[in-house]
Amino acid sequence: MKKKYxxxxxxxxxxxxxxxxxxxxxxxxxxxxxSNHGSSPLFLNYFLICLGYLASGMVSFYxxxxxxxPSFLSKKWLKxxxxxFLLIVFIPSYRYLIEFHFFLPxxxxxxxxxxxxxxxxxxQNSILYTFYSYFIYGFLYFIxxxxxxxxxxxxxxxxxxxxxxxxxxxxxxxPHFLFNTLNDIYALTYRKSDEAPSAVLKLxxxxxxxxxxxxxxxxxxxxxxxYLKNVIDLFQIGQKGTAHIQFDVEGEVNKQQIAxxxxxxxxxxxxxxxxxxxxxxxxxxxxxxxxxxxxxLISNQKNQxxxxxxxxxxxxxxxxxxxxxxxxxxWLEIKDETDTFTVELKIKWI
Length: 350
Description:
There is one protein chain. By secondary structure, this protein is an alpha+beta fold. It is 62% helix and 12% strand. The protein has helices at 3-28, 42-73, 77-107, 119-171, 175-190, 196-211, 221-238, 264-273, 311-325, and strands at residues 219-220, 245-250, 257-258, 283-289, 293-301, 330-336, 340-348. The strands form two sheets. The protein has a five-stranded mixed sheet with strand order 2-4-5-7-6, with helices on one face. A two-stranded antiparallel ribbon has the order 1-3.
């Protein structure tokens, strides 16, 4: 929901809450037995009195929804208790000021038959009357809002995943790539090379992962790494052994999971824009794994003769996916220097 509509909805709800309190009291003249109404019009008296009490409820509601509920539900107990204590102090203090320093002297309204009540009873009454109900409403509002935001985020993620996969299929693993790979495999088969069966299996595994495993939100890290290896191997076959790529994996791969196809854009970008035939400066790909997460590093020497400037499309696509899937669990740094292009990505396990 857009911000202006959300604000408008809040205003409408509070108007309805106010009218639900104001109209019955005004039409029935509920205050006649303990208020002389002062010198101001009766309508204005009721309006200001109901508005004054409503303000206390609004403060209680928004303090709970925006400060207390998020603190407690995120297990920040001390912070939640502090805000709760401040709200409990605020409510009777506010009521005392507005009832005995505004309502009574200016409107002639006395909410208590026998003057000022005892302080203990007054605090209890203030808290139960205002704090209790709006405290619960604030908690419920926060829970419902969080559910709605998570639901909307999930829908956006699903839509973004479809868009990302389509863009990936069109711009990365495209018919040109498949055609060249099949030609290379045919050449291996024609020469009766021992590499031909292995190349066919790699292409089969690559396509299976793209079409099947990537349907899920997360895939096994081992399958993602095997997928990258297959892409690299098939690329090297197509380059007739002239591509120099150093691919290293450090750490133990167990049951970690990662968003599928989240790393391939960086690899394909290095193939497309990097120098691949310089053995002294190979494309370097390194994956480091530990209990907390994964570090991915890829670096390539820039091909100064390559004139295609569309490098940003794939990278902006994967950036967006990272923001949606790992909003607080990733760190990405891209260094576009004169001679080299480096990407470093850190992902914390969810």
